[in-house]
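Appendix B, record 7
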Amino acid sequence: MMTMLLQHFTLLILVMILSSTKATEAHGFVQSLSGCSDKCGNITIPYPFGIEKGCYLEKNFQVNCTTLMLHDITFKVIDISLDGFMHGVLPMAYECYNSTHKLSGLDPIIWTRRFYVSSTMNLLTTVGCDTRADMSFNGIDYVAGSTSRTNCHMVYEGICVGHGCRQIPIPPKMSYFQIRSQRTTENVGKWSFNNCSYAFIVQRDRYTFHKTDFDDMLNRSFPAVLDWTVGHTDCKHAKEDKYNYICKENSVCIDSYSGNNGYNCRCAPGYQGNPYLQNGCQDIDECEARSLNVCIYECINTNGSYNCTCPLGKSGDGREDGSGCSYMEAAKSLRNTLYSGRKVFSYHESENDLGLAMFFVSSLERGCLIQVLDDQLKKDGMNEHINNIAMLAKACIELEGKKRPSMNAVKEELNQIRQSFINF
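Structure tokens (predicted):
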């Protein structure tokens, strides 16, 4: 209502209201507890993870900044996402032979404790000729093998389809398992192009097979994904324990999609930052970037959202996906007047044919301004506010320039009137 009133009178007296643009500053979101480091080199370690004692939620979330290993887990961290997953490197299983015997090998037992190896984002991968990979989990063997036995030279560069390379999905809820790489014939070690067999877990689409991989894998590593959660129950039960509930203000709780006994926190829509920290979720200023809002004209940021406004003389929701902005009746009248050539100011016409500005003054002096206003500007108890704006408008169209207030004075007065509306 306040904005419509200001638009109405400002249009009638042709006074432009200066708009100010709110300066914004880039937010550097805090990622760790106060006094704690949040970086290992160029890797960000966000809470609930931490480096120093007292800086992580629990021991499983401690990161050794020297080795980048999680506490008591053979997983080297590459990055940690607050979306509930982290990239890192798991040990590779391998066997290497010469023409007579096995030279070296490793069948790692992997324990990721409370973190699950993501079954949706990883694949068990086998590389080698006449090779298979066994993965033991909960007493069950999962096997990935090269289907090309004696014709391993007929491999396909760039794809894993069973000829020298094969990939299969892994089971869910996997946190303690063993990977083994085994040759299936005595040929491995006798070929000039393949003396080793390899098995490893890798993120989908992050490994491309090449023929040179047959004898050039031991010094390489590939990213795998672990799912992580906090707490030991689902959101419904976690919220009942307010003392131990981890999600902070302006955040929401998300049940684990991986089947973990826990949950994740997300900043609520309109906020960004770290939902595990006090005041960690900060408002997104959607008005800073055009791509973040659907305003046609002016965007006004609010906590967790934003509002769109229309320019002087137009009304509507101001949104591209809404009603937009259309001319108000007063603006239409002024526009039509200007198009038809009618004078905005007229001092020689009868009262029945006054210019717009003089008609406004005449209505004000005769005490009937309320009666000639648009219905959309009328509201019980608003007469005093309307009169204050009208008196300011009248002062702005005084014939003698020295009697008219300065633009700064007008701006200050309008701000005071605006404040009175807020308290109304």
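Remarks on this record: The radius of gyration is 35 Å. The chain has seven helices and 23 strands.
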